[in-house]
Amino acid sequence: MSKPVHAFDRSAVFAGNRALAIDHEAVALEVEQLLSGMTLEDQLDQLRGSQTAPIEGLYYAGGNADLGIPAFKMVDGPRGARAGEATAFPVAIARGASFDVLLERRIGIAIGLEVAAKGGNMVLAPTINLLRHPGWGRAQETYSEDPWLLGAMGLAFVCGAQNHVMTSPKHFAVNNQENTRFDMSADIADRVLHEVYLPHFKRCVQEGACASVMSAYNKVNGTYCGENAALLNDILRKDWGFKGFVESDWFLGTRSTAPALRAGLDVEMPAAYRFSDENIAQALDTGELDESDITAAARRVLHQKLAWRLDELPEVDPAVIECDEHRSLAREAAEKSLVLLKNDDLVLPLVDHSDLKIAVIGDLADTANLGDKGSSFVTSSEVVTPLAGITDLVQHAHVQFFAHDKELPDLSAYDVCLVFAGLSYRDEGEFIPTAQQETEGGELARGGDREALTLPARERQLIEAVVARTRDGTCTCKTVVVLEGGSAIEIREWVDYVDALLMAWYPGCEGGRAIASVLFGAVNPSGKLPVSFPRSVSQLNAWDVTALNVEHDLLHGYRYLDLHREVPEYAFGFGLSYTAFELSQLRLSSEAAELEIVVRVTNTGSRAGACVVQLYVSQRDSCVYRVPKELKGFGRVELEAGESADVLIALLPQELSYYDEEAGKWVLEACTYQFRIGSSSDDLPLEVFQRFDGAAWQSA
Ligand code: BGC
Question: Which of 214, 528, 566, 678 is the most buried if burial means most Cβ atoms within 10 Å?
Answer without folding.
Answer: 528
